[in-house]
Design goal:
Radius of gyration: 23 Å
Mean pLDDT: 94
Number of helices: 5
Low-confidence stretches: none
Largest sheet: 5 strands, antiparallel
Number of strands: 10
Strand order of the largest sheet: 2-3-6-4-5
Strand content: 35-45%
Number of domains: 2
Distance between the termini: 23 Å
Helix content: 25-40%
Shape: elongated
Length: 198
Amino acid sequence: MNDKYKTIEAQTTGIYKEKGSKFLSFACPVYSENEIKLIIAQIKKEYFDARHHCYAYRLGINGEIFRANDDGEPSGTAGRQIYGQMLSFDVTNILIVVVRYFGGIKLGTSGLINAYKTAAADALKNSKITELTEQQIISLRFSYTAMNDVMKLVKDEKAEILEHITELDCCMKIKVDKSKAAMILEKLSKIESVTVPN
């Protein structure tokens, strides 16, 4: 099972100019459609005087959730070109917004296609692309007597402890590579007193 994917480490920008038109591009790492809506709204607010705010995004380990938006530009000249660059660079969990300031001279279909494609590529070229492993969070509850066994398993499997609460019994949240989750859950089920609430 492939649980690795490529994305960008941090927000970057790019630019493309032609015949007085200016195309500013913003590439952002994202993890949900809600986050995407907020970023687009923020860019539209900041660059309210621009003629177009075109974008594309791709979410999920295999880029299974995606959308492209031309924001009033001729169909297929903007959003699809931005999305195409994400495929070229093989990145997911990413949003790219290209803001256009119109310079008074029309660029034509091929000019627009080239402008949006180049602006998106520029933001990606300025990005640090990193390979990540898809993670899964497991919550568990166990008695003090199981503490040593649980901690040994966490250490052996290099799981990351996100939360550890010790009251009457112990509660813990761990983050593991998704490909190892089923095997770790299987091992946890063999430790006495460990329960994994859904």
